[in-house]
Amino acid sequence: MARRVLRLVRHLPDGVYYGLSTRNYRHRGIATRKRVRERSFRSYELYDRHGNDWLLAALLDRCRDGDRVVDVGANTGVYALSVAAERPGATVVAIEANPETVERLRANVESSGFEDRIAILPIGLGAEATTAPFYRSSYHELSSFKRYNAERWGARVVGVEEIAVTTLDELVASGEVPPPDHLKIDVEGFGHEVLRGAHETLANHRPFVYVEPHATHDDEGDRTGSAAADIRALLEAHEYAVIPGEDAWVCVPEADA
Questions:
Q1: What is the pLDDT of residues 86-98, one digit of tens each?
Q2: What is the reported pTM?
Q3: Cα–Cα distance between 230 and 214 in angstroms, integer?
C-alpha cells in the first residue's frame, strides 16, 4: 500500500505535490525513510525526488569517511542527508539561502538524527559579500535570486526579502566552513558566481566539484546565455578536468583525473 501511494504521489502535478509537501512540513506529518544504497535517512519530502540523480551518485562514489562536503543550494537536504547516511564519518555543511527551505532542511536533519553530521548555514553564496533580493517561490525548489526562476513551471513568487550573501573563500578563511574535499553547487543559474567567490578554495584545497551549469535568463524569461562556458573556463584555469553527465558536471583536479 505504501509503495502504491508513493507511486501516485510521484506523478501528481507539481502544484498539487508542492501543496501537499508544504502541509506535511508545516504539521510535521510523516517523515518517511529514503534509501541510500545500503543506508537510509528520513525526510518530510513525500518521495525522494533527487535520490537517483547521477550527480549524487558521483558524489557518493568519491566521498569517504572523514571527508568534508560543502553542499551549496542544499534545498531540503537530499544530497546532505544522503552523504551523512552513506558516510557516517563524513561532515557536511549545507548552505541554503531560502529561509523557509532552511526550516524544512532543519526538520529533515533532526528527523534523521544527523545534527552532529550536518551543519546548516542560512546564507547565500556569490562572487562578493553583499545583500540581494531573494524571490521565494510557491515551488520551493525554484526559489532564487532571479524572479524568472521562481516563476517557472506555473509557480508564483510568494515573498521577496533581502538575503545576506558572502563568498566561500570568506567562509573558509574565517573558519566557519572547513576546507572542503567535495563542493556541490546547484543554485539555479548562479554557479559561476559561487565559483568566482571560491578562487582561493579551488587553488589551495582542490575539492572535487559537482555542479549543475544552468542556463541564465533575465526577469522577463529571455535566455541571456549559459553559465556553462564561464564555469568551464574558470575551472580549467584552475586545472580541473570537466566530466559531463546528466545535466551536470563532475570536475576533478587534474592531478587526480
A1: 999 999 999 999 9
A2: 0.90
A3: 11
152-208 per-position pLDDT tens digit: 878 889 999 999 999 999 999 999 999 999 999 999 888 999 999 999 999 999 999
Strand partners, 165: 124, 130
Q: Residue 133: its pLDDT value, please?
A: 94
Contact 183, 210 (CB under 8 A): yes
Scan for cell 515551488, then name that residue. 139
> How far is 227 from 76, CA to CA, in rounded Å?
24
Residue 149 · residue 188 · CB < 8 Å: yes
Residues 238 and 200 sit within 8 Å (Cβ to Cβ): no
Whole-number Å distance between alpha carbons of 113 and 158 = 31
d(Cα 240, Cα 227) in Å, to the nearest integer?
17
Question: What is residue 31's DSSP assignment?
Answer: -
DSSP label of 184: E
Question: Each residue of 9-54: pLDDT tens digit?
Answer: 554 566 788 788 889 999 999 999 999 999 999 999 988 877 889 9
Cell numbers at 52, concatenated:
537517483
> Measured in Å, how far apart are the chain's first and last C-alpha atoms?
46
